[in-house]
Amino acid sequence: MNKEFTLLYVRRKTFIFKKNLNKNIKWNYQPGKRSPSWSYSIIEHSRRLNKALKNSPSLKPYFDAVFDECYNEACKVAAVETQLPLTTFPESSPFTKSDVLDVNIDDYFIE
What we know:
Number of helices: 4
Number of strands: 0
Largest sheet: none
Low-confidence stretches: none
Order of helices and strands: HHHH
Helix content: 55-70%
Mean pLDDT: 90
Oligomer: single chain
Strand content: under 5%
């Protein structure tokens, strides 16, 4: 893989990571607005991240290193999308890496 392709690949996977965190934030802070598309998005982004880590195990340390930064960026996007104050969301992620990667499909059925 050339360096430019690798950088683009990592940026794309980082975007997916942020998107997954963003959906998890909204899932927890706007339970009344949950939808099947949110469920699907969380599950699908988790699947993509797991596939990327399986195909490129060297990305794991990178994702570990950027987890907090991705969470902070996801909070900013969630604040705009939900129109909730940024201070609504904890400064430190309430989610673990396992919450993002090891999704239990049963947790995402809407009651």
